[in-house]
Amino acid sequence: MIDNHIVATVLVHLFTALAQLLLPKKTVPQMILSIAGCLLSFLLALALFMKVYSGGILTMNAANWDAPFGIVFVADLFSSTMVLLTSVAALAVSIFSAVGVGRARMLFGYFPIFHFLIMGLNGAFLTGDIFNLYVWFEVVIISSFVLLTLGGRIPQLEGAVKYMAMNILASMFFLTGIGILYGITGSLNMADLSLKIAQVEDRSVVNLTAIFFLVGFGIKSAVFPLYFWLPSSYHTPPSAVAAVFGGLLTKLGLYALFRCFTLLFVPDDFAQTVFIIIACATILTGAFGALIRTNIRRVLSYLIVCHIGFVVGGLGLCSKTALLGAVFYLIHDIIVKTNLFLIAGLIRQLRGTMNMGKLGGIYAEYPKISLLIAIVLFSLVGIPPLSGFWPKIYLIEAALMSKSYAFTASVILGSFITLFVVAKLWSEVFWKDAVVDEVIVDNFKPLKTGRKFLMILPIGILASTSLFIGLNAEFIIQVADRIANEMIDTTPYTSAVLGNK
Amino acid sequence: MELLLVFLIGALYASGVYLILRRSMVRLLLGIILLGNGTNILIFLLGTITKGKPPVMAANLEVFEDIYADPIPQALILTAIVISFGLTSFAIVLLKRVYALLGTDDLDTLNTPQEEDI
Amino acid sequence: MKSPILQSASRYLLPILLLFSVFLLLRGHYYPGGGFVGGLVAAIAFVLHSFAFGTAESMKMLKYKPSAIIPVGLIVAAIAMFLPVLFGLPVMTGLWIEEPIPVVGMIGSALLFDIGVYLVVIGVVLTILFTISLETH
């Protein structure tokens, strides 16, 4: 069936970026185009999600070449959910960018590159071809390089060097994996690969290839021994950029990890143990890193690492409940992490610094904004009934069922440390009296009401999405449950892509 | 031919990894380039090397009669080369900026503390 | 470093290389060639010119900034990609006109896409090389 709806979000972002490139010096029309494009792509993503939710997996053969030979785009529930979440986050960030990004950066082409980044993310979620996934990854990486270095301050460039080196290395691993995979199976279509890999007799070659993919995606999704580039680069760019990075880029790595290790390589006992160990170490190192930092964005960077451990652990347990919990956590995490980096930007606007020691007294001055932020912080920690609570229940339940006590302990410890860090953040930044001998640079008060609104609105949108996820947990669990089913039984996916042969 | 390529890939990977592990930024860049070339040749090698015609059939034929060369590895390599061209040139510009601002080539010095850092 | 031999040679090589790049662009669908290679050859023509006369001179000759050509090429390629959607076909499907045109041969949306790639490659390569070489001086 021909259904161009699948790539509609990709096309919308492409054409938005192109239209913006035609208006190089006009920042206000670019801004309006950006918000309009994100809104349109959000609506299209919502429609796609509804279509997939009610009608099952959709596929589209690009250029009309049949499935195992051409590039196929697939929208199953997992990818359409990711596209929907990306669109929500992109909408919020694009509204925030209108105020939160400096004019100099906009003149340099912030908006088109932002749209290319989102286009790359959407494409990566929707593609059903492993090499095409690599190409989308590169689209994302190149755009993220430019976004990271826009402005060119020294710390930004230093962060960018580390980010660049590690990410190019990750791409090399990924590409090497693809090369070997093509050598042993002669196919690049993921559905076709999943059938052909199962027939390969020499399992050691398959496992070796799996290691290439694990390392490649592991670097991108920042798991334990490979995460150190993340905290040393994510605190440098403007907050709007950091929000996209923190909320979406690492999750792309996780998405690819899930796709590969449920569809292509089904983890055996040894691989599961490896995943669990990686997950525990990621949770603990991330949590301890977050404890000792005082810059808000550095704390958040370590919390990203910590919470990636939860999702990887879910993949490692590989039972249905665990996958459900991991997917739910992924859904919750994208929204909350994007929002937290936007909040860090807002705090910087309010006080001119992000050092917790120098902040304080925001609650006294801006009680309403603080309460909005409190909702986000609570859902990050997972106070019931907010969104972070439900997936953890499932993860712990799954861990106990498969008698993986180390992971259970890590999840609980990681959650407690997150709670402690968030409580510290709340009391230092919001409750504590303003530090007396610090000069407060409030860049927020002099803003016009419209611009103030543009800054608060995205945080409000994402916070209400978090609330929706938390309060409507039954629906989200249903979605996550179906995604977990799709992961365990991949026949619907393969038969949808290859046709019932 | 295959054996030669295997040794070439090994040499490229080994020297690439060695260069990446150095502290100099220029060596890091060279290492990345070598690794990229090694990967491309690996894809070329694993796509089975055959001397054959391009797999384009004449309109009046039903099946392809000659031996054809698999075009996919070449398409993959071409794409990978284009991408690594973009990445490398970006990396060169970036490293040059860093060098111009900091005046050093040493990766260990890339930790300028910020006011709001620590 | 301005060698008169290189200067006079590049004056003749520039149009020949540009012509050759168009040749590569047009034969690209069935034979080796195509937008990417053609674009590279065209870019090399300008790079050769900049070796002979200096980067500043080449930029003066081009009149426009090479980066201005990138969005044009992207839009041409994107249109070629999007065109089949209007005919109810999947994105990127090749559309072909019925009768071949003399000299050029069959024309389809693939050629439009290749022209887009050609322009983008010229723009990107020249932008990068000019940026790098200007920063050195």
State Rg of chain B. Answer: 21 Å
Largest interface: A-B, 40 and 38 residues
Unreliable segments of 5+ consecutive residues of chain B: none
| Number of DSSP strand runs of chain A | 2
Shape of chain A: globular
Find the count of extended strands of chain B (DSSP E, 2+ residues): 0
Number of helices of chain B: 3
Number of helices of chain A: 20
Structural class of chain A: mainly alpha
Question: Distance between the terminal alpha carbons of chain B, to the nearest Å?
Answer: 55 Å
CATH architecture of chain B, by name, is: Orthogonal Bundle
Please describe what this structure looks like.
Chain A is globular and about 70 Å long. With 501 residues, chain A is an all-alpha fold. Chain A has a domain of 222 residues. Chain A contains 20 helices and two strands. Chain B is mainly α and 118 residues long. Chain B has one domain: Helix Hairpins (Orthogonal Bundle). In chain B, helix 1 runs antiparallel to helix 2 and helix 2 runs antiparallel to helix 3. The longest helix of chain B has 32 residues. In chain B, 25% of the residues are buried. The mean pLDDT of chain B is 84. Chain C is an all-alpha fold and 137 residues long. Chain C has one domain. Chain C has five helices and no strands. In chain C, helix 1 runs antiparallel to helix 2 and helix 2 runs parallel beside helix 5. Chain C starts with a helix and ends with a helix. The model of chain C has no long low-confidence stretch (mean pLDDT 84). The chains are: A mainly alpha (501), B mainly alpha (118), C mainly alpha (137). Chain A: Keywords: Cell membrane, Membrane, Transmembrane, Transmembrane helix. Chain A: This is Na+/H+ antiporter subunit D.
Summary tags:
heterotrimer; B: 118 residues; mainly alpha; Helix Hairpins; 3 helices; C: 137 residues; 5 helices; 71% helix; elongated; transmembrane (chain B); CPA3_antiporter_subunitC (chain B); cell membrane (chain B)
Quick rundown:
The complex is a heterotrimer of chains A (501), B (118) and C (137). Chain B is mainly α and 118 residues long. Chain B is built from three helices and no strands.
